[in-house]
């Protein structure tokens, strides 16, 4: 949360000073995904200004129902200039786009890798300070010679992450385990090279919200699965 100091006059008394919270602007790329919708609601509930970029005009109403402003952006086909204008003025950009289950290898490269790199390029040009990328657990362990679509997905994530890590942005790369649709637990395990596990999308969204609002996790990459540590505590310890 960004803070500002404001003077408040009280009649004939001396001016008093108080700290006023100022909402951040958070742009979510891939705003209609399940995690992204949960994230938008969590951010809005904490008083943040949320802009959710979606490629389908029919999805604008969905993101607006959870408290975001919907804008159109097809990250797979957009120009650098279009993405730059979408993120301009943001305090935080969250890249949550993905080709999705059932998509072929080509879209893993064009969305999961190239889309993330395009978002990073645009964030740098627009002067966005913070970029949070939703990646995948085990990305660095992908079989380099496999033609299996899931292995290509992991390689695409790994290449995108490497590109993001090389930048001067205050980046954070979050690598969740297998995603489930269960209710939020509020508790996670966060660290490097964790054993494979799963985590609810709701807990991932709450972690992303905590990272965005507090600034924790800058220039850090980590795995996250379900666990016993409260999300705020885990994020603060990154």
TrEMBL record:
It comes from the Bacteria. InterPro entries: NAD(P)-bd_dom, NAD(P)-bd_dom_sf. SUPFAM superfamilies: NAD(P)-binding Rossmann-fold domains. Residues 30-211 form the NAD(P)-binding domain. This is Putative NADH-flavin reductase. It comes from Rarobacter incanus.
């Amino acid at each position: 949360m960004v803070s500002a100091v404001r003077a408040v006059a009280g009649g004939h008394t001396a001016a008093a000073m108080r700290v006023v919270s100022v909402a951040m602007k958070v742009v979510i790329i891939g705003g209609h995904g399940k995690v992204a919708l949960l994230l938008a609601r969590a951010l809005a509930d904490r008083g943040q200004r949320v802009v959710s970029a979606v490629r389908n005009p029919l999805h604008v109403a969905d993101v607006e129902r959870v408290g975001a402003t919907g804008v159109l952006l097809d990250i797979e086909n957009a120009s650098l200039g279009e993405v730059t204008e979408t993120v301009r003025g943001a305090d935080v950009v969250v890249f949550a786009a993905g080709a999705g289950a059932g998509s072929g290898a080509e879209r893993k490269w064009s969305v999961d890798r190239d889309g993330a790199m395009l978002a990073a390029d645009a964030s740098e040009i627009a002067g966005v300070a913070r970029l949070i990328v939703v990646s995948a657990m085990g990305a660095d362990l992908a079989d380099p010679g496999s033609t299996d679509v899931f292995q290509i997905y992991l390689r695409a994530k790994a290449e995108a992450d490497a590109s993001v890590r090389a930048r001067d942005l205050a980046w954070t790369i979050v690598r969740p385990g297998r995603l489930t649709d269960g209710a939020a637990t509020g508790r996670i395990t966060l660290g490097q090279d964790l054993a494979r596990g799963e985590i609810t999308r709701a807990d991932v969204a709450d972690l992303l919200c905590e990272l965005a609002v507090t600034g924790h996790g800058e220039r850090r990459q980590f795995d996250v699965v379900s666990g016993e540590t409260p999300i705020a505590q885990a994020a603060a310890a990154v």
